[in-house]
Amino acid sequence: MNSMTSAHPMSKASTGKLALFITLGTESVFFVTLLVAYIALRDSVTWNVPHTWTRLTIPLLNTVVLLVSVLLAWLSGAAIRRDNKSALKSNLLTTILLGLFFVAGQIYEFSHAGLHINDSSFGGVFFTLMGFHALHVLAGVVFLGLNYVRASLGDFSAQQHEAVELGVLFWYYVAAVWLVLFVALYLV
Amino acid sequence: MTTQVREIPHKVNIATSGLLSWIMTVDHKRIGILYLFSAFIFFLVGGIEALLMRIQLAQPDNKFLSPDVYNQIFTMHGTTMIFLVVMPLAAGFGNYLVPLMIGARDMAFPKLNALSYWTYLFGGVFMYSSFAFGGAPNDGWFSYAPLTEKAFSPTHGMDFWVMGILMLGLATTIGSINFIVTIIQLRAPGMTLTKLPLFVWTTFVTSFLAVFSLPSLTTAVLLLLLDRQLGSHFYNTAEGGSALLWQHLFWFFGHPEVYILILPAMGIVSMVIPVFSSKPLFGYPAVVFSTIAIGFLGFTVWAHHMFATGMPTASLLFFSADSFLIGVPTGVKIFAWLGTMWKGKLRFMTPMLFSIGFVALFLIGGLDGIHLAVVPVDWQITDSYYVVAHIHYVLFGGAIFGIFSGIYYWFPKMTGRLLGESLGKWHFWLMFIGMNMVFMPMHVLGLEGMPRRIYTYGPGRGWEIWNFIETIGAAIIAISVFIFVVNFFLTMLRAPTHHESDPWDGFTLEWTTSSPPPNYNFAEIPTVRSRRPLWDKKHPELADWKEETA
Ligand code: HEM
Ligand SMILES: [Cu+2]
Question: Chain B partners of A36 at a C-beta cutoff of 8 Å?
Fold first, then answer.
């Protein structure tokens, strides 16, 4: 933001948050319409959920990893609000590492699930939903990573840290989407 | 109107003149002009495609275009006019005008604004490059799957279409988020939502429609891409895919899309008619409310495009009744425009002519829509030329006439020059006559059973005469567009004479700046007290705010 476009005093909302919320709105329609495809194909003859599916180890582990990372992301935001820059950095770093761990777990899961995108309607739905979610996790990792770099350069303070808040909000969103997908693809 | 002094900010420009200054620009006015210019070029391309189709259909059993080429041409015509012409023309006006109308110095995110323009341009050029790589897409602008699966559409045309649509969708999404944030955050003091110029309102609602409907199209085309490239089976019925999934995903986007195309034109007309009637807009709250109502209802009627797919009776009833309902807010607007003109001091200059043309032609198109929303009627005439008549009365008679009204109205703002009035009148009348000659007979052809998207037809069905008249009408439209282009060049060759003036005796903030406006738009951010800030300034004793706040 520069002085050209600084928000008018009539509005109290933060420009960055507003833009992020609208973006998450459009993302949500994207995931909901993917779930529509899931619902549309659920009753089809080739909806073959693999036999090995009872193995919930990786997905459950990944769920825990993501939930812990959400807690750490929240702590990173709380840290900078108290102007604690080193806690901000260490919490961001662990969030990022857990995010990468999650993606690694997903890749392992993809190659051991006994499924291919082209062998059944379930395979298509599974890889599409999981794949687009994993891309969002990676986007979140990049977002948090940039914030980490900026934090290391001393960009943030208790007063000035909007990007941190936005990154954390995005991370919450990614985790929330995961919970929905986990229930849809593994539990029901 | 009082003003609030703020320091004029220093804008960093990499170059201030020449080609580079346009390529590097992040100024909303320049980006607006880039949008308008590029979209107009695509309008000429899409128009040439229309002429090719009309030549082919002028006589029965004509051999001018092969069936294969004909399919590519009508697909690119529809795709072009919708995604590369009307949407970006609206985005062009939005970019140029919204900051000026709300008293801001630029959009909220100037760099994202440039990104969205260049993404649009690249997407359009990318799609057209398919002609050089084995053939353009050829399954119509709605690209129904499974017809678009690799087995049935083996050329790369569909892949170009899918990737082009992804880019265009991204461009529109970024642009729409920018509009929403700008309108919420950057309004001048006193510019409350109840004082917002109507064009800003329609841009606002249009942006919401885009942000919440485009992802459905994104999903549809991504799944198609996965089917075609990685062998998944979303739309492949033989392997458990669904034949209706595409239609639902597409039309959940497709119906909001038609309002994305028409609302900005409605906004333009709602700005032009009051000025040329010398009256404020009649029923401003009702017009705003009907715009918002259209925004919500627009998401609930999509399956009226699918009446012929064998839906359950309950769904047929719901989507039919709901489509009638959406006619109500549309009707409210028609009455508001007529009420504004009623007893007004009317000035029939070119912008006004196009706005009146808009009202008349859009009304016909809307009534056609109501016919199509009657399920048994639709079963008879769906996929016939009747539907083609409907879409052109709303999109050509509606969107394009509204946009031309805007071009004539704001041309002096953008260039400091007035477009020639007499050539403008020729343009309007020829386009109006040509338009009705092309599209009115399509009603008859549709009722006589001529299907849309056929490359030729046999003699002796009574279709020859109508098709022939339509081709003549198309030539008349082409002449009218040519007159516009001539008018443009003649006007641009003259020196600008309207730098300081307010040539139409306008009402809104954009006319308080010089023409074209300075880089920063407003040296002093204005304070707004009514819906017609410039009227208040010119007529302090009759100022609107005295009444509105009373
Ligand atoms: C009064 C409100 C309207 C109603 C009730 C209505 C109804 C319909 C119906 C039922 C169809 C499907 C016809 C068929 O395929 O059998 C249709 C098609 C269409 N309508 Fe409308 N419509 C309305 C307004 C509009 C507006 C304002 C626009 C655009 C500016 C528009 C653009 C289109 C287009 C482009 C199609 C054709 C899509 C295609 O099949 O290619 N309509 N309309
Ligand atoms: Cu519709």
Answer: 219, 245, 248-249
The rounded distance, in Å, linking the Cα atoms of B378 and B172 is 32
Q: What is the CATH number of the domain that holds A105?
A: 1.20.120.80
Distance CA A88, CA A109 (A): 31
Centroid of ligand 1 to alpha carbon of B474 (angstroms) = 22
For tokens 């960055």, the residue is A16
How many CB pairs below 8 Å do chains A and B form together?
127
Within 6 Å (CB) of ligand 1, which residues are found?
Answer: B 142, 258, 261-262, 304-305, 323, 326-327, 330, 366, 369-370, 372-373, 378, 382, 387, 390-391, 394-395, 398-399
Identify whether A8 is part of a domain: no
Give the number of domains in chain A.
1
Closest residue of chain A to B213, computed from CA coordinates: A29
**Angle ∠(B352,B41,B107) on CA atoms, nearest 5:** 70
pLDDT tens digits in sequence order for chain B, 550 residues long: 444 445 555 555 556 678 888 888 999 999 999 999 999 999 999 999 999 999 999 999 999 999 999 999 999 999 999 999 999 999 999 999 999 999 999 999 999 999 999 999 999 999 999 999 989 999 999 999 999 999 999 999 999 999 999 999 999 999 999 999 999 999 999 999 999 999 999 999 999 999 999 999 999 999 999 999 999 999 998 888 998 999 999 999 999 999 999 999 999 999 999 999 999 999 999 999 999 999 999 999 999 999 999 999 999 999 999 999 999 999 999 999 999 999 999 999 999 999 999 999 999 999 999 999 999 999 999 999 999 999 999 999 999 999 999 999 999 999 999 999 999 999 999 999 999 999 999 999 999 999 999 999 999 999 999 999 999 999 999 999 999 999 999 999 988 887 777 899 999 999 999 999 998 999 888 889 888 888 888 888 888 877 765 4
Residues of chain B positioned with their CB less than 8 A from the CB of A118: 230-233
User: In terms of CA atoms, which chain A residue is nearest residue B229?
Assistant: A118
Set out the domains of chain B in order of their start, with CATH numbers: 24-549 (1.20.210.10)
**Residue A2: inside a domain:** no
Q: Which residues of B touch A18 (CB under 8 A)?
A: 180-181, 184-185
Supply the ipTM of this predicted assembly. 0.93
Is B179:A19 a contact under the CB 8 Å cutoff? no
Closest CA to B104 of A183, A5, A163, A48: A5
Residues facing residue B451 across a β-bridge: B384
Domain that holds residue A179: 13-187
Q: Which residues pair with B5 in a beta bridge?
A: B524
